[in-house]
Amino acid sequence: MAQEASEVAPEAGEQLGEDDLWTLFAGFRRGTRDSREQRIHDRVQVMQDRGHKVPRRGRSLSLREIVATAITVADAEGPEAISMRRIARELNAGAMSLYWHVASKDELLDFMLDAVEGEIEFPPPTGDWRADMRGMALAQRRTLHRHQWLMQFIGARPPLGPNSLLHLEHALGVLDQLGLDTRTALDVLSTMMTYVLGAVLREFRERSLDRDDQEMLTGIDTADQQAILTANVARVRASGRFPHLLRLFDENIDPDAAATRDARFEFGLDCVLDGIAARLPGAPGGTARTGTPG
Description:
With 294 residues, this protein is mainly α. The protein has 12 helices and no strands. It is flat and about 75 Å long.
């Protein structure tokens, strides 16, 4: 990243390019150019004092290459595998080479989160806020399933990256047609994201239970599995205490079935959207605030 945030301050009305947005992000995280140069100087000095050879600054790494490699490692092994030394090894470089581009592991994580945010492909606005919000929720869910380590960090770190900010701007634009005040619009977005995160977390647990069940039943043939299930259901039925629960078995309903996962997510999503719609101005009993700055 050749420039710092202090060097790309835009004129009024000027459009910033993607690289400029990344530079602004770095400015949020690192401060001014002088502070970053001092940090690099101090790190180099420490290495020299310890007798280490300091790699040349011109080594042909890029921030995007570093971030992409870190995401690949996290996807395969989880975020615990991320370290500056590990990423440097994957790139066949010295760890110090990374510090010319990334200040710390925490900063690398922020770049990773924003890079993944950039993968989310929101559908183009249609003018129908409900359809647009639904499309955004489905896109977020797909990304969470593709990068499962994200769940450990969403909401725990400030969304300062350019992709995060652009998506927030997009979402607020979708809701702008409803005439909500800013605070209420943010509450709507938070409610939607809370549903998506909660639903995906349940889906992850369902998949984990599926794996556990498969391991537990390894070596037991299908007939024996059915005999075990039949015996357990008979015990539940004999107790006389679970008439409603028994309907699941009688109607052969698996509440965690992988085949119904998409439909269950979309059912819950529609319920959330129904609830939001019921509170909009003009809706019967609607209570949403309008027109007041947040």
